[in-house]
Structure formats: C-alpha cells, structure tokens
Amino acid sequence: MTKAEVISEIAAKTGIEKADVSATIEKFFEVVKNSMADGENIYVRGFGSFVNKRRAEKIARDISKNKAITIPAHHVPSFKPSKEFVKQIKESKKLTA
C-alpha cells in the first residue's frame, strides 16, 4: 500500500478531504523525522515506538582496496511495534505461513 492509497482510504473512511488528510500525514512524518533528529523518541500507545538506536564503532573491510576502514558510532531510526500490533498481525486470517 502506498502513501497515496493510505490517504485515499482515510479520506473515504472519515469523510475528510484528501488534501487535508495529505497535509496531516505529511506534517506527522515531518514531526517524527524532526523529533528523532533532535534525539527524541516517539511512543504511540497501541501502535508502536519510533526510537533511535545507537550503533557502536566497528571495523569493516573495503573489499575493492582490500583495506580495513573504521565506521564511526552513529544512530539509526528504528520502529518497534506494540504488543497489540504484533498480536493483530499474528492473528490475521489473511496472512498465511
């Protein structure tokens, strides 16, 4: 499902115009990105958490030059679904193993 499809579905289910739904979703994503860039985590009860995970410094290999390089410590964004979210996916009848 694409962002446009999500916007269309929300607009159809709520009766809100697509332009308003689109603007709201864009602002939500902007808030999430800016907050995480500022080092804040975002917790949405019943849905999940957007958190920054720290990656330690490590030694890697540049195979084209056959040389060891150091990758500095850094943070990467991560999403952890809530227990309710995971339970809903596990119990879904449309998903099969």
Ordered list of secondary-structure elements with their pairings:
Elements: H1 3-14, H2 18-37, E1 42-44, E2 48-55, E3 58-62, E4 67-71, E5 74-81, H3 83-90
Antiparallel strand pairs: 1-2, 2-5, 3-4
Helix pairs in contact: 1-2
Compact description:
The protein is an alpha+beta fold. The protein is built from 3 helices and 5 strands; from the N terminus they run H-H-E-E-E-E-E-H. The longest helix is centred in the first third of the chain and has 20 residues, at 18-37.
List keywords for this structure.
HU Protein, Chain A, 30% strand, three-stranded antiparallel sheet, 97 residues, alpha+beta
- Strand-residue fraction? 25-35%
**What is the CATH architecture descriptor?**
Irregular
Envelope shape: elongated
Helix content: 40-55%
Number of domains: 1
What fold name goes in the CATH topology slot? HU Protein, Chain A
Over the alpha carbons, how many angstroms does the gyration radius reach?
19 Å
